[in-house]
Each structure stands twice: as structure tokens, then as C-alpha cells.
Amino acid sequence: MLVAKHRKPVDKVFLNVPYDPNFERLFLAFIAGVSAFGLLPRATLEIATSSRRLDRIVKLIGTCRYSIHDLSRVQLDRLAPRTPRFNMPFELGLAVSKQKYSKSKPHDWYVCEARQFRLMKSLSDLNGTDPFIHSGTINGVFRELCNMFRRPVRQPTVRQMRAIYSDLRKNLPVILRGAGSRTMFNARVFKDLCVIAGSSADALVK
Questions:
Q1: Domain that residue 21 falls in
Q2: Which of 49, 110, 121, 152 ranks highest by number of CB atoms within 10 Å?
Q3: Element of type H or E holding 178
Q4: For residue range 44-87, what is the model confidence (pLDDT) as tens digits?
């Protein structure tokens, strides 16, 4: 297992993505790609369920310099009663509010989709905002992260992000066993993935 080192990320990135098995590959890709830029991924997975969950989500977004909102899951789920997913657009609204009305710290938000032009129908209030289309692929996520974060200090290549992703894949079984979890959508698993991704990025991207 890759040995993790302590690191001081420049900024944090709030990841607003669907927590379902079909999104696991892309979730790992976002963690790997964001870490490649020297940034620290954050997510609501870290928040314990409580009556004050909404307050904690708002606070978490407030600690982040950036947020990425994946709105590619617009279909109804399979469990009765069949419903669409509202968490992602809701948390996007919180981020937009943070950018518009908070004077304490700047916040930039980005919207991702898998299909071109669908956002104009699913969330027409964002007409005029260009989403980042990852086409539902790992390389698509890496490509669009390069378009989002044109940072002067660290500019990883897609190949380097792929290598970090491979490190996460290799270490994932050990991480899952250590956390006693069958899914990566778990607070302990997410934290360990971020540590491994950060260490791998520091070693690969100069």
C-alpha cells in the first residue's frame, strides 16, 4: 500500500456528486484529478447524519475555494417510490449563494454533465452557464478538470492523473477492508482515498 505523507493543500474543492455504484469510477477520477492539482477534495460523506446536517453542509461549502457539481444523474432511481435526485442541484444552489452573497472568502463553482445540451432542459435557470461535459468517462473527467483549473503552479497531465487513479484502484481493496466497508461512499474510505491520492500526486506531479 502506498505510504501517505502529510501535506498542506493550497485550497479545498467540494465534490457534489451522486453516491451510487454506477458513479464509483468517476468518483475516483474526481478524487485523483483534483488531488493532482494540489487541491484537497471534500464531500458531504464527511458529515455525520444529524438534525443540523444542512448547517454543516453550508459550513463545509464555506470552507472550500471551489466546488464541482455533477448533474449528470437526472434519471429516476429504481427503488419505489421512483424519484429524481435533488441533492446535487440543491447543493449547487448553496454554492451559488455562497459566491453571490458571501464577502468573507471567494468561491468558484463548476457544473459537470455527461451529455451536451441536457442542462438547458434539466436546469434552465443555468442557461448561459457552460457545463463541463465529461461524457461519463474517466478521461473525460480529467480533461474537464484541466479546463477548470488552469493553475500556474501545478498543471498535471491526463497521463499523470491516470497514474494517480491507478494508485487509488490498487489500494482500494485494502482501504475498504480497513474501513469494514463494501462501498467507497463512506467517510473513512473517502478520507483514506484522499490521503493516498494526495501522496501519489505529490510524488508524480512536480
A1: 12-204
A2: 110
A3: helix 158-179
A4: 999 876 668 888 999 999 999 999 999 988 666 676 776 767 78
